[in-house]
Amino acid sequence: MFVQSRAETNHDHKNGVALQQRRGNSETLVQWQNGRQRWVSTADLKGTIVLIGNDTNSDDYEREL
Questions:
Q1: For residues 7 and 59, what is the distance between their CA atoms, to the nearest angstrom?
Q2: What is the DSSP secondary structure assignment for residue 53, as one 8-state letter?
Q3: What residues contact residue 58 under an 8 Å CB cut-off, 6+ apart?
Q4: Is 44 exposed, middle or buried (0-12, 13-18, 19+ CB in 10 A)?
Q5: Where are the domains of the chain?
Q6: Confidence band of 6 (pLDDT split at 50, 70, 90)
Q7: pLDDT tens digit sequence for 10-64
Q8: Cα separation of 28 and 38, whole Å?
Q9: C-alpha distances out from residue 20 to 9, 11, 47, 54, Å
């Protein structure tokens, strides 16, 4: 599942993959299609957030924005 950023203006930062979350899930580490990784506000993401490589129950981390 790919996520998009509502706040990002850089065209290269699209089709991101969510890797992990921190600060009570308020920030998500996203790797964009150009290879860059950034912590972004989870509220600024659109799409279904599914953390890649997560070894816990996916129900805790999957949600629709």
A1: 26
A2: T
A3: 50
A4: middle
A5: 4-54
A6: confident
A7: 777 778 999 999 999 999 999 998 889 999 999 999 888 999 865 554 455 555 5
A8: 8
A9: 22, 22, 15, 8
